[in-house]
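haha ok so turns out i had the wrong file open the whole time. this is the CORRECT one, sorry everyone. sequence first:
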Amino acid sequence: MKKYIVIIVIIICLIILELINIYSNKEVNIDIYKLAEELKNAQIFEDNLNEIDEDSIVKRYNFNKEKINQIVSYIGTGATAEEILIIKLEDKNDVAETKQIIESKIEERKIDFQNYLPKEVFKLENYNLETNKNYIILCISNNYDKSSEIINQYIK
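then structure:
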């Protein structure tokens, strides 16, 4: 009898482990354009953000274009540090490297804004940078909490 109970417990554990594996490998599919539009319209920016083309954003950050599946970005007029950047990478193994590139660019911008518009440095120190599978989402705005709430609807 004990032998059967042990076998049943092992089978149940294996089923649970397989379900965990299936859930953790679940395909994430974020509509990056819809998310960007929702952030843009959330009244969390003081500047008017304009969409910039893929080539310009790749050049601005010095991304490897081959690693990008989709990308969308909105930036302000230059009078603020405000920005939306959402990337879907071809491979989730490139997320850490791409995230590091973004963080380095933000550090450069902090230095630039320190002398130019010091009040914008606060935004560059309190930004949203989230990852989920092969997605990276950056939002630099006036309202960290509101942008975080919107982003979490898409990634959690």
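The chain has a mean pLDDT of 89.
again sry for the mixup
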